[in-house]
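Re: [ENG-882] Designed sequences occasionally contain unexpected residues at chain ends

Forwarding the minimal case from QA. Structure tokens:
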């Protein structure tokens, strides 16, 4: 039976890419190293290279704090682009998370959704980085679960097992959780495997490639699709709560 949006009790969110415009934030934060490169790549190529490096580092060191993941990614990108590695520049890049902008519709949509749902964050960052982001989001979340405390990075199934277990302790059953995310690779594939319903916020609708996220394997699915978070909030206000 297809569920309505009103049938859920909790929305779990990916943050960076879904609520925060991480591609714009990353592109801005990469400008110093690109300026030192002999042949800097264009935006989409740079973001794709970032995705490749980030995926490798997280797989190699799943317990590494996200700020340290970013510093190592910066080192690898510097090497790949022919720029002399710079420890201070890597540290600034690692600290840039809090500077990444929210999508224009994020704060208002979250405030509207909070009237109806328990709001939860399941993020691949560390606590300190998320704390710098929180003021941009406009709401207090009921729960925030990060890779730092879980000890692994999405799409590792442990992250979704952690989410389901913790919300279960709070009286929210698996079938009452809707996972809301942009990344098919990081979020929808493991949500499928965990038996969670999901809503795809297709922030890159119409854009070629996968951008700053790794491409997903074939067969990924979702229960609802929207191009903005505002469209999800609008649908939640409809009598039947249907998505695209």
């Amino acid at each position: 039976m297809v569920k309505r949006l009103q049938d859920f009790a909790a929305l779990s969110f990916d943050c960076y890419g879904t609520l925060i415009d991480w591609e714009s934030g990353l592109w801005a934060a990469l400008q110093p190293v690109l300026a030192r490169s002999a042949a800097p790549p264009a935006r989409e190529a740079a973001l794709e290279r970032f995705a490749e490096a980030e995926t490798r580092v997280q797989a190699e060191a799943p317990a590494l704090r996200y700020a340290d993941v970013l510093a190592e990614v910066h080192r690898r990108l510097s090497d790949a682009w022919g720029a002399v590695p710079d420890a201070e520049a890597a540290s600034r890049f690692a600290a840039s998370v809090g500077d990444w902008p929210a999508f224009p519709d994020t704060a208002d949509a979250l405030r509207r959704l909070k009237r109806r749902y328990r709001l939860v964050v399941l993020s691949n960052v560390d606590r300190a980085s998320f704390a710098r982001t929180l003021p941009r989001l406009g709401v207090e979340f009921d729960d925030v679960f990060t890779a730092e405390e879980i000890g692994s990075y999405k799409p590792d199934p442990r992250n979704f097992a952690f989410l389901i277990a913790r919300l279960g302790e709070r009286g929210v059953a698996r079938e009452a959780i809707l996972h809301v995310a942009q990344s098919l690779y990081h979020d929808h594939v493991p949500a499928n495997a965990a038996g969670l319903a999901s809503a795809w916020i297709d922030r890159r609708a119409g854009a070629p490639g996968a951008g700053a996220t790794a491409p997903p394997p074939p067969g990924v699915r979702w229960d609802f699709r929207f191009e903005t978070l505002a469209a999800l909030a609008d649908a939640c206000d409809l009598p039947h709560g249907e998505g695209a």
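QA comment: On inspection the terminal residues look reasonable. The mean pLDDT is 95. Proposing we downgrade this to a documentation issue.
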